């Protein structure tokens, strides 16, 4: 896998630098660790241990701020990446469906730290995060993010619409360019459903608490969005035309063809696990 090879190159660079330092010194040092420890990543991990208390708990606003501050300050290099890697310089290849890759830095029952790699034009389709708080930090690249929250409306009559269609309100529909601030999805705000479309090759660091777990009922569902006015049988949520554009129907679908992610080995700095 190309990305793995390139991440391997990063750790080789780290190893090589350490060897050079050793050669120049007369003092004896223990053998260099193959992968350096990253202080910002370690700080993120330690804070996640404090913040994520397990299923059913949502981080307090103070804790969300704390994690956002750490993530806002993180750079691609903190997880062993660099904009000089060939992956981030490659434009899209016509006729080839770009595949998203994912690597896990750390995962426990309470939280996970992952990086998603999106080649140019790659898409992570609309998907949800049931019961999870999710922090997204764009490390490199330019990406379009669309996010919805489900709406609980008195006007919504479940008997009148197919049950798999849910009314949702648009919360984000913008292009983000690294470096930029962290975005957060909350489990209590109505669904936390989002999609990513890479404009250039991207790396996105995700902190999820708790992580997906099929056996615990936190599986990932996929959706397509249908314009609100396309379903005439529904009563109006609002009569304001501009306001209506914020709304759509989300229909649950099977994972779109070609959207399966490729898991790759994490080759960047490791976290030192605390018991
Ligand atoms: Fe997501």
TrEMBL record:
It comes from the Eukaryota. This is cysteine dioxygenase. Belongs to the cysteine dioxygenase family. It catalyses: L-cysteine + O2 = 3-sulfino-L-alanine + H(+). Its EC number is 1.13.11.20. GO terms for biological process: detection of hypoxia. Pfam families: PCO_ADO. Its cofactor is Fe(2+). InterPro entries: PCO/ADO, RmlC-like_jellyroll, RmlC_Cupin_sf. Keywords: Iron, Metal-binding, Oxidoreductase. One of its GO terms (molecular function) is metal ion binding.
């Amino acid at each position: 896998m190309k990305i793995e090879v390139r991440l391997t190159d990063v750790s080789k660079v780290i190893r090589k630098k350490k060897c050079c330092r050793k050669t120049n010194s007369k003092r004896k040092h223990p053998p260099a660790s193959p992968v350096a420890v990253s202080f910002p990543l370690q700080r993120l991990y330690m804070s996640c241990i404090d913040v994520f208390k397990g299923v059913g708990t949502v981080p307090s606003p103070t804790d969300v701020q704390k994690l956002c501050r750490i993530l806002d300050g993180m750079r691609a290099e903190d997880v062993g990446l660099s904009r000089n890697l060939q992956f981030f310089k490659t434009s899209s290849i016509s006729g080839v469906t770009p595949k998203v890759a994912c690597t896990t830095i750390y995962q426990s029952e309470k939280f996970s730290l992952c990086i998603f790699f999106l080649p140019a034009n790659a898409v992570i389709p609309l998907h949800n995060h049931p019961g999870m708080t999710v922090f997204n930090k764009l490390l490199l690249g330019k990406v379009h993010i669309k996010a919805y929250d489900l709406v609980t409306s008195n006007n919504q009559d479940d008997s009148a619409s197919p049950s798999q269609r849910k009314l949702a309100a648009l919360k984000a529909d913008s292009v983000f360019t690294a470096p930029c601030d962290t975005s957060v999805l909350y489990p209590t705000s109505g669904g936390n459903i989002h999609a990513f479309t890479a404009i250039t090759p991207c790396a996105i660091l995700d902190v999820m608490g708790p992580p997906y777990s099929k056996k615990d009922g936190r599986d990932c569902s996929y959706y397509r969005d249908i314009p609100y006015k396309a379903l005439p049988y529904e009563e109006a949520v609002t009569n304001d035309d501009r306001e209506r554009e914020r709304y759509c129907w989300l229909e649950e679908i099977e994972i779109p063809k070609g959207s399966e992610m490729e898991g790759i080995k994490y080759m960047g700095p490791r976290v030192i696990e605390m018991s």
